[in-house]
Amino acid sequence: MAIVLGPNQYGKAENRVVRITRDSARHEIRDLNVSTALRGDFSAAHLVGDQSQVLPTDTQKQTAYSYAKEKGVESIEAYGLELARHFVDDVVPVEGARIEIEEYAWEHAIVDGEEHEHTFVRLGQEVRTASITVEGKGAEQKTWVIGGLKDLVLLKSTGSEFHGFLTDEYTRLEPTTDRVMATALVAQWRFTETELDWNAVYAGVKRILIKQFAVLHSLALQQTLYEMGKAVLEEYPFIAEIKFSAPNKHHFLYNLETFGVENNNEVFHADDRPYGLIQATVMRDDAPDAGPAWTPAANLA
Amino acid sequence: MAIVLGPNQYGKAENRVVRITRDSARHEIRDLNVSTALRGDFSAAHLVGDQSQVLPTDTQKQTAYSYAKEKGVESIEAYGLELARHFVDDVVPVEGARIEIEEYAWEHAIVDGEEHEHTFVRLGQEVRTASITVEGKGAEQKTWVIGGLKDLVLLKSTGSEFHGFLTDEYTRLEPTTDRVMATALVAQWRFTETELDWNAVYAGVKRILIKQFAVLHSLALQQTLYEMGKAVLEEYPFIAEIKFSAPNKHHFLYNLETFGVENNNEVFHADDRPYGLIQATVMRDDAPDAGPAWTPAANLA
Amino acid sequence: MAIVLGPNQYGKAENRVVRITRDSARHEIRDLNVSTALRGDFSAAHLVGDQSQVLPTDTQKQTAYSYAKEKGVESIEAYGLELARHFVDDVVPVEGARIEIEEYAWEHAIVDGEEHEHTFVRLGQEVRTASITVEGKGAEQKTWVIGGLKDLVLLKSTGSEFHGFLTDEYTRLEPTTDRVMATALVAQWRFTETELDWNAVYAGVKRILIKQFAVLHSLALQQTLYEMGKAVLEEYPFIAEIKFSAPNKHHFLYNLETFGVENNNEVFHADDRPYGLIQATVMRDDAPDAGPAWTPAANLA
Amino acid sequence: MAIVLGPNQYGKAENRVVRITRDSARHEIRDLNVSTALRGDFSAAHLVGDQSQVLPTDTQKQTAYSYAKEKGVESIEAYGLELARHFVDDVVPVEGARIEIEEYAWEHAIVDGEEHEHTFVRLGQEVRTASITVEGKGAEQKTWVIGGLKDLVLLKSTGSEFHGFLTDEYTRLEPTTDRVMATALVAQWRFTETELDWNAVYAGVKRILIKQFAVLHSLALQQTLYEMGKAVLEEYPFIAEIKFSAPNKHHFLYNLETFGVENNNEVFHADDRPYGLIQATVMRDDAPDAGPAWTPAANLA
Question: Transmembrane residues, as ranges (chains A, B, C, D) (predicted)?
Answer without folding.
Answer: none
